[in-house]
């Protein structure tokens, strides 16, 4: 059957778990091995598709930051979701 | 040589100045009105040439009531296309849209603004799903869905790109889509658009300006 979309409460719980995990990664110099508990909590709170999506998003944000700090101006994205 | 001219009496000179001045003012006003009319006609041609949001749609709102595009004529509309399984962008944009509508509602001099959400994922976003979704945002946010054909037609009319990604083992997927909030005027025509970078205040300011300077387009 069709899975219900996450409610607002579930969305916020997912985003919170994601933010906790990301803060850990930043604090641990991107060492994912030191953030395993938060990773598991993130995967538990978010639909699998969202975990994949946020992983890709973070990679993109890191890449963008790297380009900006190295003085290269990336083309503007269309902001597709 | 010229002969001497006897000067006109003062009142006649004043009358002459008044008549000439009146004629000049009249001519200037007429010219300005003609320019305004030409500007409006040119703008009408440009907006029509864009052909954005043309055509009708037959969708269903989140209460199950059928809605056509004509139902919204006479209203200002802020329109967003998204889907309920959207990870972050759609809630953010709908939150922003709702805040903008609230800012404008605070000004009693402005006409009402109808917030509208149209799904790009009709396969999953049925009436019940859309109803559950829209209630988390502005109380007057109206959600629209329908058959895949009708939804595709509505999205196409507004040049909204939408493509469902691959399904995972749970059948879940993300719909990649254009992220933009459209402003429609009371004649149903597209007037402006707002991207991700716009804040609620910026959107409200722009909508307010459009409302205050709105002129119905000539046919």
From TrEMBL, chain A:
It comes from the Eukaryota. The keyword Phosphoprotein does not apply. The keyword Chloroplast does not apply. Its main location: mitochondrion. GO terms for biological process: mitochondrial ATP synthesis coupled electron transport; respiratory chain complex IV assembly. It comes from Asarcornis scutulata. InterPro entries: COA6, COX6B-like, CX6/COA6-like_sf. Keywords: Disulfide bond, Mitochondrion. It is found in: Mitochondrion. GO terms for cellular component: mitochondrion. This is COA6 factor. It holds the Pfam family COX6B.
From TrEMBL, chain B:
GO terms for cellular component: mitochondrial inner membrane. Cu cation binds at residues 86, 90, 177. The keyword Metal-binding applies. It is a single-pass membrane protein. Disulfide bonds join 86-90. Keywords: Copper, Disulfide bond, Membrane, Metal-binding, Transmembrane, Transmembrane helix. InterPro entries: SCO1/SenC, Thioredoxin-like_sf. The chain crosses the membrane at residues 14-33. One of its GO terms (biological process) is mitochondrial respiratory chain complex IV assembly. It comes from the Eukaryota. This is SCO2 protein. It comes from Asarcornis scutulata. The gene is Sco2.
């Amino acid at each position: 059957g069709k899975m219900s979309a996450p409610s607002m409460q579930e969305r916020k719980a997912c985003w919170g778990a994601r933010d906790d995990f990301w803060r850990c990664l930043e604090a641990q110099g991107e060492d994912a091995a030191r953030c395993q508990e938060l990773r598991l909590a993130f995967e538990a709170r978010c639909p699998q598709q969202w975990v994949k999506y946020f992983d890709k998003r973070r990679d993109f944000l890191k890449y963008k930051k790297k380009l900006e700090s190295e003085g290269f101006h990336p083309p503007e994205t269309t902001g597709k979701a | 040589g010229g002969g001497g001219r006897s000067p006109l009496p003062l009142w006649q000179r004043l009358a002459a100045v008044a008549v000439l001045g009146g004629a000049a003012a009249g001519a200037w006003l007429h010219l300005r009105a003609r320019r305004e009319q030409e500007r409006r006609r040119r703008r009408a041609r440009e907006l029509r040439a864009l052909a954005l949001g043309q055509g009708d749609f037959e969708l269903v709102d989140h209460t199950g009531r059928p809605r056509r595009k004509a139902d919204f004529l006479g209203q200002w509309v802020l329109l967003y296309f998204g889907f309920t399984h959207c990870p972050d962008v759609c809630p953010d944009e709908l939150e922003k849209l709702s805040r903008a509508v609230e800012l404008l509602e605070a000004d009693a001099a402005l006409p009402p603004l109808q917030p509208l959400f149209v799904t790009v994922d009709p396969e999953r976003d049925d009436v019940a799903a859309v109803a559950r979704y829209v209630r988390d945002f502005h109380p007057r946010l109206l959600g629209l869905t329908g058959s895949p054909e009708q939804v595709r037609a509505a999205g196409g009319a507004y040049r909204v790109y939408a493509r469902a990604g691959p399904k995972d083992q749970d059948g879940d997927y993300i719909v990649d889509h254009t992220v933009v909030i459209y402003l429609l005027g009371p004649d149903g025509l597209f007037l402006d658009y707002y991207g991700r970078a716009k804040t609620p205040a910026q959107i409200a300011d722009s909508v307010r300006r459009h409302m205050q300077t709105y002129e119905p387009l000539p046919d």
